[in-house]
Amino acid sequence: MTLEKRINAFAELGSFLTQFGSNLKNDQLIKINEQFYESFEHLIHNQKQFNGWFIPENVLLAVNAWAKILTKTNLEKWLSNYSIPETVPKRVGVIMAGNIPLVGFHDFLSVLITGNHVVAKTSKDDSTLINKIAEVLIAIEPELKSCITFAEKLENFEAVIATGSNNTARYFEYYFGKYPNIIRKNRNSVAVLTGNETKEELSALGNDIFQYFGLGCRNVSKLYVPENYSFNGFFEAIYDFSWVTNNNKYANNYDYNRAVYLLGSNALLDNNFVLLKEEQNLSSPVSVVHYEYYQTLEQVAKQLHEQSNEIQCVLSQHNLPNSFKLGQSQEPELWDYADGVDTIEFLLRLK
Is the CB of residue 93 less than 8 Å from the CB of residue 103? Predict the structure, then answer.
């Protein structure tokens, strides 16, 4: 199967996904729509029964993000930096996380687009949607059927891409260390504020914090703010995100963390749906955002560089190295690799 066929298949998948949330069906996808449109739409709106965090709005957010990315132009631009030979495929085991919808799809895509065979072990928290996407993809390009395997237990593989927590990473390293591998651990994202941000920019930061209820590695879990920073404007700008407490799982986390911190006499800033706690740790619990004061931006840049192996992305309106603008954390391109590890390059080395 040629690279061009694979690119066309994923581009057509992108066209299929574009229809959800828009209420406009693509007339060129009649056969695929007849087979999958209703069942896929049903899955989007019923993911919450499998995972209480996966409300329809967040599932649609993930689906629409992939619909936007999976165009022929984007795919060709992404792959133009590589030489992808048509050789005997390798069987690559992919262990997927389940913290946000379709979080394992980039690895799934990378393995297949390079002409390899993906052996996927999905998370129990996010399995039905990725399985359905595979069905759609096979209907679009039947040759891909022999390249996709879903497995409860990884067997008969030649390389591994595994995503999990710091604890599961130790398990992965023990069992898969003898194979070529990418093993991802916990990462967090941070935002650096100067005090000069507009209300609109701070509201955009609310997306970085609250989309997917803050469960993703690209969600901002810590703020760096200048000394004597006033959080009044920040709280005003993010007020529209108070809807997060409508989700019982989020509300329970908020109530629990608030009670624990108050019992421990921790100083908190609280707006009734998120807690701000002064803390050096990058990782914060659900419903909590840590913050730390700084004296100069140069100091922050140095600190972030020293912690780069723990940080997924940096958000700032100031031009810090390798940073995104506020509001863009959940809009990665195909070439924005998790943990900064080039998945395609890794897969090509297997060839």
Answer: no
Q: Which residues contact 306 (CB under 8 A, 6 or more apart)?
A: none
What gap in Å lies between CA 187 and CA 164, rounded to an integer?
10
Q: Which CATH class, in words, describes the domain spanning 3-185?
A: alpha beta
Do the Cβ atoms of 276 and 209 come closer than 8 Å?
A: no
Q: Which amino acid is at 243?
A: W
Q: Is residue 324 left, alpha or beta, with left meaning phi > 0 and alpha meaning psi from -120 to 50?
A: beta
Model pLDDT, residue 319: 81
Amino acid of residue 206: G
Domain 188-324, CATH class in plain words: alpha beta
Residue spans in the chain of domains classed CATH 3.40.605.10: 3-185
This prediction has a pTM of 0.94
Are the C-beta atoms of 77 and 333 separated by less than 8 Å?
no
User: What value does the CA radius of gyration of the chain take, rounded to a whole number of Å?
Assistant: 21
Q: Residue 100: what pLDDT?
A: 96
How far is C-alpha 6 from the chain's CA centre? 23
Residues lower than pLDDT 70 in the chain: 23-24
* Angle of CA points 318, 322, 328, to nearest 5°: 70
| Structure-derived torsion over alpha carbons of residues 304, 306, 310, 315, reported in degrees to the nearest 10 | 10
- Whole-number Å distance between alpha carbons of 107 and 184: 12
Structural tokens at position 34? 């007849």
